[in-house]
Design goal:
The structure holds two protein chains of two kinds. By secondary structure, chain A is mainly alpha-helical. Chain A is built from 14 helices and four strands. Chain A has a single domain, classed as ABC transporter involved in vitamin B12 uptake, BtuC (Orthogonal Bundle). In chain A, helix 3 runs parallel beside helix 8, helix 8 crosses helix 9 and helix 12 packs across helix 13. In chain B, helix 14 packs across helix 15, helix 14 runs parallel beside helix 16 and helix 15 crosses helix 16. The chains are: A mainly alpha, B alpha/beta. Chain A: One of its GO terms (cellular component) is plasma membrane.
């Protein structure tokens, strides 16, 4: 039997099916941007794009963490609450007079710690990620109101500097510190996923956890790691959120985990795991941002239209994933 | 076998699970440069022995010596690191990752801490070239056939400098050509000095490739024999522990003539039934008491035909008549109501529910047919379940045992019982004997004969031609998703002729005359 006859496969399999959702998102983004530019003259201003990044920097960071989790086939519902708790704890500690650097370190430890514990619960007790992170979500949200029922303003010098610092070009376009932080997170995450064993194990586990185990990959360690990473990203997002609002509010970022999941899925990451890219997640966040901006520019539309459009898009993208058959299980 | 020192010696191995003694005082040796077949019926302890060796299970008693050292692996990865690699029956690769990555994941060559992708691809290509496989190593493994995936799994296994390569039923999903390619690789690896432990249910394959045979029965060692000194019949006797000529007896039994069976209205008659992308239009009639064999290679559309009959897939075109009346088979419930039962080829994914007990699995279809609100009384359940556990000699004969604890052959029997309980008029058996041992195989074949003698129509699908020829009154041959021939199974039909039809499809004109 000749070798070639074993290896022939249908021509459609040669299409870059795994890149298809990302390409679709990119096309969608360009179309939406095109619509914006053709409708509103000011839309072509570079600062519009920068503003999208400024307004969604924290969302992007959290979505990067969520990408890790979803790539393993899991889900993390706690991220919005964890971000809020991080902002809340920062505001509270700053109010009590702790030095800014120490506050930063403490605030950045809480999220990963919670993520680590949730990862352990998911792995060692074999509990659904949905329910474990739901518990984490309630816990973190409860901690917010436990700290204070009311919003705590931040007046610390470091925080206000970070909030107001502008990194700009000579023509007056600028980005905030959080955009830089978000980009660093994205680049590090992309590197980790593509070039480290941890990253490849994430994909392997998302592809087929049983096989991954039999191939001797560290299933438990990787799963715990992704929830810890997601917790860390939520914590960084929380800090960026507190830069953005200069306060800690107990009811901020309610439901944000769902926006984050939407961004990741629209960015082409498959919910059953094993397929997706951080770059796609960036595009997903941008799609959300462009929709918001379009609706703001229109002025007559209610901001809830954002949700309606996102709902429609989310459905369309999940349908697309199903139609092109990126399901390995 | 030139080296007189075994690379692996297992002595006095015992292993018990709650309620079952899986292995009792088993010895096993493996020499470098040999293919050693591990034979036994389902439940004889083959899988347990392999899992004990690779550290999936701990051992209760006994000693494992690899090379000069006593070993007790903590798991497959540690075993692989020490040179004992396993390729499982179900290919265990990550379908979403590339071929190259599947070979190297967990031990990728790295440069400055980062995965060195160029090196990964280069080494993957080199390895696959050694296995005579020229494929795109950057494509996802899911885009290749099962056979290629199996080779990739072997490539992964031998890259870890394997001294011992365990192949656990590697051929059960491969067609003849693919098996040949696998054997070529096995011989090559053997000549390079690797010891290969080969588990299979195909006796002829054992005689084609194995140098030595170890036989297990009921968790105990029967013996170790050079292949040349153990005739096939003797091997079967050792495996099942008694003289077995059931298979021969089936052929000796007088079967009703096809002409007699084909009198009267057919039970099911389909004409020009088709489904785009699955199977080209075909027509087939099945009468009560008739066994219709469906022959063809893997992927030729056999299963697709079966699924159309059962309504598991919807036909795009074509007509169906049941007992002469136009009928619709658009979903399984309609099919069940018409008296059609379907034993899926994929018993793990589509048939057996592993966590339910034997009893629960058996009554599932009957309960579904009655409607969920009319519970089958417990007494009736016990009656039925006991009857079929006896009739099919399901072991262990414990209706309350979760099905996951049963061996493959016994799971298959439970699945069969599930449909037999509903007393179907047409039973579709898709590869009912795949991956099960010769004893259980004979029992299932005997059962098919009994059922058809009792008036049940059977659509029998199997990759093993002998089996199809032995049981069927007539044979429909599938080729490239098309039904190319209908053969009446008389004296003029033999394996060669069916094979030729499968290969060339030239019987079509003759059959249509």
């Amino acid at each position: 039997m000749s070798v070639s006859s074993l290896t022939t496969r249908p021509s459609w399999a040669k299409l870059p099916r795994r890149q298809m959702p990302v390409l679709a998102t990119l096309a969608l983004l360009l179309v939406m941007y095109g619509i914006g530019v053709s409708q509103y003259q000011a839309f072509s201003n570079v600062q519009v794009i920068f503003n999208i990044f400024i307004d969604n920097g924290f969302l992007l960071v959290i979505a990067v963490g969520m990408t890790f989790v979803i790539l393993t086939g899991g889900i993390d519902l706690s991220v919005g609450s964890v971000a809020a708790m991080t902002a809340m704890v920062s505001a509270w500690l700053l109010q009590s007079g702790l030095p800014a650097l120490l506050v930063l370190v403490i605030a950045l430890l809480i999220g990963p710690l919670l993520g680590f514990l949730m990862g352990c619960a998911i792995h060692f007790f074999d509990i659904q990620p949905f329910i474990v992170t739901l518990a984490g979500m309630f816990f973190a949200r409860g901690m917010c109101t436990f700290i204070s029922n009311a919003s705590i303003p931040i007046t610390d010098g470091f925080w206000t500097t970070m909030s107001q610092y502008r990194i700009g070009d000579p023509r007056g376009n600028f980005v905030s510190v959080s955009v830089i932080v978000a980009f660093v997170v994205v680049l590090v995450a992309a590197y980790v996923l593509a070039y480290t064993r941890l990253g490849r194990n994430v994909y392997a586990i998302g592809g087929n956890p049983q096989s991954a185990l039999l191939m001797g990959l560290p299933l438990g360690r990787t799963r715990i790691a992704v929830y810890t990473i997601s917790g860390l990203c939520a914590a960084i997002g929380g800090i960026l959120l507190s830069f953005y609002t200069l306060s800690g509010a107990p009811l901020i970022a309610v439901g944000m985990e769902l926006d984050v999941i939407a961004a990741v899925v629209i960015g082409g990451t498959v919910l059953t795991g094993g397929s997706g890219y951080v770059f796609g997640t960036v595009l997903g966040v941008l799609v959300l941002g462009v929709i918001q901006t379009l609706i703001t520019f229109d002025g007559s539309l209610n901001s809830w239209w954002t949700k309606i459009v996102i709902g429609g898009l989310l459905f369309a993208f999940i349908l697309l994933q199903r139609l092109i058959g990126i399901r390995y299980k | 076998m030139t080296d007189s020192r075994p690379v692996l010696t297992m002595t006095g191995i015992s292993k018990s699970f709650p309620g079952v003694r899986a292995l009792h005082d088993v010895d096993f040796r493996l020499f470098p440069g040999e293919v050693h077949a591990l034979m036994g019926e389902n439940g004889a302890g083959k899988s347990t022995l392999i899992k004990v060796l690779t550290g999936v299970y701990g051992i209760d008693e006994g000693v494992i010596i690899l090379g000069d050292e006593q070993v007790a692996f903590s798991g497959p990865m540690q075993a692989a690191g020490a040179g004992v690699s396993t390729v499982y029956q179900e290919v265990n690769l990550c379908p979403n990752l590339s071929v190259a990555e599947n070979i190297f994941i967990g031990r990728e060559p790295r440069r400055f801490g980062a995965v060195h992708w160029a090196e990964v691809r280069r080494r993957a290509r080199a390895l696959l070239t050694r296995l005579d496989l020229d494929i795109d190593v950057t494509a996802p493994v899911a885009s290749y056939s099962l056979a290629v995936q199996q080779m990739v799994a072997i490539a992964r296994a031998i890259d870890v400098r394997a001294q011992v390569l365990i192949l656990d039923e590697p051929t059960s999903s491969l067609d003849a050509g693919e098996v040949e390619q696998l054997f070529r690789i096995m011989r090559q690896l053997r000549d390079e000095g690797i010891a290969i432990l080969f588990v299979t249910h195909f006796l002829d394959q054992v005689y084609r490739i194995a140098d030595r045979i170890t036989v297990l029965r009921n968790g105990t060692l029967v013996g170790e024999y050079p292949t040349a000194e153990l005739p096939q019949l003797a091997l079967v006797e050792k495996m099942i522990g008694k003289d077995l000529d059931v298979l021969e007896r089936i052929e000796e039994q007088p079967r009703p003539e096809l002409a007699t069976l084909e009198e009267g209205t057919p039970f099911v008659e389909v004409s020009q039934l088709s489904r785009r992308g699955a199977v080209a239009p075909f027509s087939l009639t099945i009468h009560a008491g008739e066994v219709v064999g469906l022959a063809g290679l893997l992927g030729s559309g056999r299963t697709e035909v079966a699924r159309l009959f059962f309504g598991a897939d919807r036909a795009d075109h074509g007509d169906v008549a049941v007992s002469g009346e136009p009928a619709s088979l658009r979903n399984p419930v309609q099919a069940i109501n018409q008296g059609i039962g379907f034993c899926s080829e994929n018993r793990r994914a589509e048939g057996i529910i592993p966590d339910l007990t034997v009893r629960e699995n058996m009554i599932l279809a009957m309960q579904a047919a009655r409607g969920w609100l009319r519970r089958i009384p417990r007494r009736r359940q016990d009656e039925l379940v006991d009857k079929y556990i006896k009739a099919l000699s399901i072991r262990p004969a414990n209706p309350d045992m979760p099905v996951r604890n049963l061996s493959g052959g016994n799971q298959q029997k439970v699945l069969l019982a599930r449909w037999l309980i509903t007393e179907p008029r047409l039973l579709i058996l898709d590869e009912p004997t795949r991956g099960i041992d010769i004893g259980a195989k004979a029992e299932i074949q005997k059962l098919v004969v009994q059922l058809s003698d009792g008036g049940m129509a059977v659509l029998f699908i199997s990759a093993e031609l002998e089996e199809v020829l032995r049981l069927s009154h007539k044979i429909a041959v599938m080729r490239d998703r098309e039904m190319v021939a209908h053969l009446v199974n008389d004296d003029t039909v033999d394996a060669d002729r069916v094979m030729q039809t499968i290969a060339t499809g030239t019987q079509r004109e003759e059959a249509n005359q």
